[in-house]
Amino acid sequence: MRINKYISETGFCSRRETDRFIAAGRITINGKVCVKGAEVESEDIVLIDGKDIPQVDRQPVYLVLNKPIGIVCTAAQQVEGNIIQYVNYPSRIFAVGRLDKASEGLILLTNDGEIVNKMMRSEHNHEKEYVVTVDKPVTDEFLRAMSQGVEILGVVTKPCEVVRHSENVFRIILTQGLNLQIRRMCKALGYRVLKLERIRIMNLTLDQLERGQWRHLEKHELNTLLARLK
Questions:
Q1: Cβ-count burial of 168 within 10 angstroms (0-12 exposed, 13-18 middle, 19+ buried)?
Q2: Which of 74, 187, 208, 225 is at a distance of 20 to 30 A from 51, taking alpha carbons?
Q3: Is 200 left (phi over 0), alpha (psi -120 to 50) or beta?
Q4: What are the pLDDT digits (tens) for 190-203?
Q5: How many whole angstroms separate alpha carbon 22 and alpha carbon 6?
Q6: What is the rounded CA–CA span in Å between residue 221 and residue 87?
Q7: Mind telling me the catalytic residues?
Q8: Is the pTM for the entire model greater than 0.85?
Q9: Which tens digit of pLDDT belongs to each residue from 38-74?
């Protein structure tokens, strides 16, 4: 089994976090520093920072947080305002994807490493919906360009649904997650984002959740989410 899958299945952290531990040289297999893509056998001794992988409560946890501006979507304890310290959940969890520090709204946190990988794969076309306020009126030309795709980071973004909400506000539904995608798309078209709020991930919504508050997923929400991820 690949090392990142092996560790994610312990519930300690996601595959993506495991890759960061590997890059930092913090994981060893049988006393040797682990490299990305390493395979692990059942009899191998895997350590993180020279210690056994902590035992984690395997009771699945799925939380929705209405993230405030200023909170950073990282599990790195040294980062001030990191999302894990902010939520302060009693067992190990991590964020699925991220919202940048200046953005707000819905984010999912879990201890289920497998769900992270399924949700983050862009080829699965999982929808994420945002309400965006910009610094000048939203024109038909702007909406058309955003929906057809904008060149950023050396690629053209996937076609997406974009509708005007009010003079300076639009809604956008993405099925990919490039770094700072909406902000970069707007900038490329001569606009500056003043406010960015995520209001939906797939079937999950804030459902009147106050800013800064979190809640457990309802059973029907979780069942629908897991069914769509199969």
A1: middle
A2: 74
A3: beta
A4: 999 999 999 999 99
A5: 13
A6: 20
A7: 100
A8: no
A9: 998 867 889 999 988 876 556 889 999 999 999 999 8
